[in-house]
Amino acid sequence: MPPERREPGPGGIGGGRSRLGGTGRRAALITAAVAVLGACSGSGPQSALTPEGPIARQIDDLWDLVFVLAVIVFVLVMAVFAVSIFRFRERKHDTREPRQIHGNTPLEISWTVLPAVLLAVLAVPTVRGIFEVRAAAEGPDVIQVNVTGHQWWWEFEFPDMVSDDGRTLVTANELHIPAGVKVQLNMTSRDVIHSFWVPPLNGKRDVVPGRISQLVLEADAEVADKDFGFGPGIIPGQCAEFCGLAHADMRLRVFVQSPADFEAWAAAQLEPVPIPTEGAAAAGYETFNSTCTTCHRAVVADADGAVTTLGAERTLEVDGVTFLDQFGPDLTHFGGRSTLGAAILENSEEHLADWIDNPSDLKPMAPLRNDLEAGKVLGMPSYGIDAEQIAQLVEMLEAWQ
Predict the structure, then answer these.
(1) 315, 318, 337, 394: which one has the fewest Cβ atoms less than 10 Å from its Cβ?
(2) Which CATH superfamily is domain 141-401 in?
């Protein structure tokens, strides 16, 4: 004879506390926690959900379409699931065998055709968007910027912005762009794979050694006056591909300016900075010229207007394009920048002094593994200069506006 069927007691099969109840409570708590955390992440200076330009808006529109369709599918499937569970649940004292179903042709056709149609609907804007977002910008007004990714900072060169004596505009970690104008970034890396990402302006793009990847940025006109928490028109970005010790501190800032303000900024950046001739700044210049120019560059002019470039210019050829390949950032007009250390610190005399004294205290780097002859640089070392020399360097660099 078959064993006698026992009905579950109040605490579940076998009596006692139901383990299913505990699992259900944990699942509910986890679901609630995920929902709360998700609700907290909707806005912020690096949110991809708040597009600030036409390219980012195109990506956001596609996301909205996919999300809406996904919610509709989820609700329909869960509704059928819930009805099935409730309607066909096991009932007490009901020992009848359910009706056996061996197929339903209309239903099977429906759940094959409908997903195919849904995927086709999504494929059209997705494929179109991929080609449009990845397309190179064209036209006489497009601004070209050559970007070199380093461990752990960004180097920017405007190859079409040239001074009267043939120097291109070079800066680091702070990218200035005019609002309403397409800016094409031609990017490569001098060491490992990085990823350039400014979420409100476009998606991320890998920056790979030996290859050129392109990314187009365009900001809406009103962005120049919008405050993202760092000042009007300043949008933070960062490396989005793990690249070593200081990956989390490989940041940048994009300064969106009106076209007139951008032109004024570019013209000022092409001017050399003056060689200090007296006081602490003059002593700092001597230290800079003898110690810092091993890795850094600066374009200076003497009292007679003679222009000199301190430090060697290093370049990198990739697919016929010449990229700058300096060991450290160009420090011309350093005092006019708002940040230092790849946008991890505000540019102040105190922060600059601490950075010169021992950069590795402020940013995880490995300067002891540097090999300049082999072109390997993993951070700025501490040169052991005394406090007076540091103060002199700080005064000189902060004066280079």
Answers:
(1) 315
(2) Cupredoxins -  blue copper proteins (2.60.40.420)
